[in-house]
């Protein structure tokens, strides 16, 4: 039942905006780009192409390569694109997980483990990650939820939790980043796996960007308690988060009401000064100057940087 509610409320995977090619599939420079995959991630899971990159492939000179379609709206040059590492991991629920590491700040202490919002994939987020990471001086590790981008399976609440677990393990084992140097960042639906993971593991900090209390509370704002058939009950997990938490929310959010951010903030044991963006909606907080200012202040001055 919760997964049925979750599917109705939350998941809108776009047509994939990128492909990941194994080393032997890489085209020579100057050759035309391959057409982006038209098949859905679920189709890809059912019928993997003959030369699908293996889990774990993607580091070193024989690395996987990322190819973006026009819909990814790439904002940078080939040099920046070449620096983006992509590879596959495998979740405990046996889905193939597309992962991306954007090395924006090699000397930085912190890496953001970024769980993106709905209706986007890694291809569309890639330019944003480069801009954000270089401005706040953090590397960014991200992943596509099951059924999004090149990740196999179907989107569901259980898969969300397994997806972020696999991403956390990949960041720790593949790149050797320890928990005290990981900042969990969740945006919109991405706050759901972020809160779940943060309630089970301690990390440097947690950033919740337009969080939701639970699925039913989004659909039915008068809901006052968590029912057994509710989905995404983050409001019941946030009190178990022992890391510092920064909550960011727009006061005019038309998708997840501002009251959700307020309630999550009030339940955080270690909440820091929140950012309430006056007049901002659900998808435009990043356009306000105080967004970057608050992130820089939090990461550079309120967290340890030695």
From TrEMBL:
<dbReference type="GO" id="GO:0043197">
    <property type="term" value="C:dendritic spine"/>
</dbReference>
<dbReference type="GO" id="GO:0098839">
    <property type="term" value="C:postsynaptic density membrane"/>
</dbReference>
<keyword id="KW-0967">Endosome</keyword>
<feature type="compositionally biased region" description="Low complexity">
    <location>
        <begin position="30"/>
        <end position="46"/>
    </location>
</feature>
<dbReference type="GO" id="GO:0099175">
    <property type="term" value="P:regulation of postsynapse organization"/>
</dbReference>
<protein>
    <recommendedName>
        <fullName>Alpha/beta hydrolase domain-containing protein 17C</fullName>
        <ecNumber>3.1.2.22</ecNumber>
    </recommendedName>
</protein>
<dbReference type="Pfam" id="PF12146">
    <property type="entry name" value="Hydrolase_4"/>
</dbReference>
<dbReference type="GO" id="GO:0055038">
    <property type="term" value="C:recycling endosome membrane"/>
</dbReference>
<keyword id="KW-0378">Hydrolase</keyword>
<keyword id="KW-0564">Palmitate</keyword>
<dbReference type="InterPro" id="IPR022742">
    <property type="entry name" value="Hydrolase_4"/>
</dbReference>
<feature type="domain" description="Serine aminopeptidase S33">
    <location>
        <begin position="109"/>
        <end position="214"/>
    </location>
</feature>
<dbReference type="InterPro" id="IPR029058">
    <property type="entry name" value="AB_hydrolase_fold"/>
</dbReference>
<keyword id="KW-0628">Postsynaptic cell membrane</keyword>
<feature type="region of interest" description="Disordered">
    <location>
        <begin position="17"/>
        <end position="62"/>
    </location>
</feature>
<dbReference type="GO" id="GO:0008474">
    <property type="term" value="F:palmitoyl-(protein) hydrolase activity"/>
</dbReference>
<keyword id="KW-0472">Membrane</keyword>
<keyword id="KW-0770">Synapse</keyword>
<keyword id="KW-0966">Cell projection</keyword>
<keyword id="KW-0449">Lipoprotein</keyword>
<comment type="similarity">
    <text>Belongs to the AB hydrolase superfamily. ABHD17 family.</text>
</comment>
<keyword id="KW-1003">Cell membrane</keyword>
